[in-house]
Every structure is written in structure tokens, then in C-alpha cells.
């Protein structure tokens, strides 16, 4: 357990960043006991941080009350061993409310997701994230994707804002990311964190690493932590052979399967957790469950991934 600031704890991660799914019982209500078990297993498997109630955790589907309960449960399960970062989103007023709920639940930081529905200009986006950052004492990572896409100049202003410590990119525009990294490096002293937040980020992490972006989210860690950890360690140590074997034999087939259904970036991950023996329930609407055939293919992909680990020993 450490009291170091969140940025320092995230800067050189010992393992993947863990984005747990949210567990539901047979009646569809949040299952906090199973959720705690899921988070605890991830921490014990080597996660460097827990990002609770974010995209993979179906933030969009949780009531404020459920959100606070889940963040508190994640904090309890982590037991201070790794930081817990909670999602916050929707319009500014609701995002501020979620931020304050996360702080009350004991979170160490916030992942500020895109505002709901509207496509805003840079001035409005900057004001939105500054109000979230000012609402609590929690450090904030801003999530770029969908209707929250920033110019390098706006990210410079975000980096100058008290409480905002980083940018997570879910857009995938490498030219824009290079210009953002360069602008912030040139104009804002100190360390500003960058995260690869694309779905199944391992698939693109070699490209992001070339930009200096070493942090990435790992949804695969939810259901195959050994594979995600082996990839992370191989990437850090420069073991290109293991990286390429896992990309070719596991991650690419998984990404191709994920592309067969809308919402599979969450639903397929949740199916993977169930396949690995923890009943976290189904996804909530408007997401839908994978087909039976797709779940069967997922089981085969997971089996192949673990076989590759055995070969690499």
C-alpha cells in the first residue's frame, strides 16, 4: 500500500490496467459479492490499477446509487494495493455528481468520459472537463473518443488545468496523437500521462509505444489475466517473439471475433469472464449477449492463447 500520488503510481505500471466488468445477479441487480471477487482476482493476478465502472464496466447502465456501491466495493476489494479509478460522465452536472460519488466511495481518481449526446466545440469541452476537475480533489484522466475529440491546443489547456493528469485516447488517430504529445511536451512542463484506450488496446500498443504512450487499458485481463500479463511483460522487456505470437495467435483472432457484433467490446469480455468460471451475469440493454456460436469461438480463442503461453515457457 502506498500514499504516492495517482500519477506516480500509474506512470510505470507493474502490470496491465484492469477494467473489470460489473457483475449482475440472475434478477439483473448488481451482484456486489461477485464483483468484489472479480476485482480481487484481478489485483491478485497482477493488475497495476483498477478502473471501476468505466466502459467495460457498463458505466452507462448503472444508476448513481449502483455506481457508488460498485466503486466502494472495488476500493474494498483492492485494499489499497493498487489505485482505483472510477468513471464519470454524461452532462457536466451529472458528471460532477458521479465524480463526487466516486470521491465519497474512496476512489483514487477519475476517468472522465465523453459528455452525453451533444457534439460540443473545443471551448465547451474545455469548460466541461475543468468543471469536473474542480468538483473534487481527485486527479482526472480525460477520455478522448466519439464526441470528445481535442485539438492539440485544447489538450495543452487541459494539461495546464489543476487536477487533470492525463489523456486516454480511444480515437486511434495517430497523427493527432503525435501532435498532441508534441504540443504538450513543448508547452507544459512536467509529466502528463497518455493511455491507449482503444478496444483490445494490445492490438495497437506497438504503434502507440512508438509515440511514447506506454500505458494501455486491457479488457482481456478480465478473463485471461495470464495472457494479458505475459503480453505486458514481453512488451516491456522487448521480447518481440512472444509479442508477435500472442498478437498473431490470440489478439488478432479475438479482435476479429469482437468485430462480428455491436457492443462486443463489452459483451464478449463478459462472456469470457463467465467462460473462465465466474458468473458475472449478462450485459444490460441496450447491449446484447453474443451468439452461442460466437461464445464457442471465444472459448477456442482463449484455449489457443493459453496454449501459446505454454509454448513460450
From TrEMBL:
Its EC number is 4.2.1.41. Signal peptide: none annotated. This is Probable 5-dehydro-4-deoxyglucarate dehydratase. It is an enzyme of class 4 (lyase). InterPro entries: Aldolase_TIM, DapA-like, Dehydro-deoxyglucarate_dehyd. Pathway: Carbohydrate acid metabolism; D-glucarate degradation; 2,5-dioxopentanoate from D-glucarate: step 2/2. CDD domains: KDGDH (cd00951). The keyword Lyase applies. Belongs to the DapA family. Gene3D superfamilies: Aldolase class I.
Amino acid at each position: 500500500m502506498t500514499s504516492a500520488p495517482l500519477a506516480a503510481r500509474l506512470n510505470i505500471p507493474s502490470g496491465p490496467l484492469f477494467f473489470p466488468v460489473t457483475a449482475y445477479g440472475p434478477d439483473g441487480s448488481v451482484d456486489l459479492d461477485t464483483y468484489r471477487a472479480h476485482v480481487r482476482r484481478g489485483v491478485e493476478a497482477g493488475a497495476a490499477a483498477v478502473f471501476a465502472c468505466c466502459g467495460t464496466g457498463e458505466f452507462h447502465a448503472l444508476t448513481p446509487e449502483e455506481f457508488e456501491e460498485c466503486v466502494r466495493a472495488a476500493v474494498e476489494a483492492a485494499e489499497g494495493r493498487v489505485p482505483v479509478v472510477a468513471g464519470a460522465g454524461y452532462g457536466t452536472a451529472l458528471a460532477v455528481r458521479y465524480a463526487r460519488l466516486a470521491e465519497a466511495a474512496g476512489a483514487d481518481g477519475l476517468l472522465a468520459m465523453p459528455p452525453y449526446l451533444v457534439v460540443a466545440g473545443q471551448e465547451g469541452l474545455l469548460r466541461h472537463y475543468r468543471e469536473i476537475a474542480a468538483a473534487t480533489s481527485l486527479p482526472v484522466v480525460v477520455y478522448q473518443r466519439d464526441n470528445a475529440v481535442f485539438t492539440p491546443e485544447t489538450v495543452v489547456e487541459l494539461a495546464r488545468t489543476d487536477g487533470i493528469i492525463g489523456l486516454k485516447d480511444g480515437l486511434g488517430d495517430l497523427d493527432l496523437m503525435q501532435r498532441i504529445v508534441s504540443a504538450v511536451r513543448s508547452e507544459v512542463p512536467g509529466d502528463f500521462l497518455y493511455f491507449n484506450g482503444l478496444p483490445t488496446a494490445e492490438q495497437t500498443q506497438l504503434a502507440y509505444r512508438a509515440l511514447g504512450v506506454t500505458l494501455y487499458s486491457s479488457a482481456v485481463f478480465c478473463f485471461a489475466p495470464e495472457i494479458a500479463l505475459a503480453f505486458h511483460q514481453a512488451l516491456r522487456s522487448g521480447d518481440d517473439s512472444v509479442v508477435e505470437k500472442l498478437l498473431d495467435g490470440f489478439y488478432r483472432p479475438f479482435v476479429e471475433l469482437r468485430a462480428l457484433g455491436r457492443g462486443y467490446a463489452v459483451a464478449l469480455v463478459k462472456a469470457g469472464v463467465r467462460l473462465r468460471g465466474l458468473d458475472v451475469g449478462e450485459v444490460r440493454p441496450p447491449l446484447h449477449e453474443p451468439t452461442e456460436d460466437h461464445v464457442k469461438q471465444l472459448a477456442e480463442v482463449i484455449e489457443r492463447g493459453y496454449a501459446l503461453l505454454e509454448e513460450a515457457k
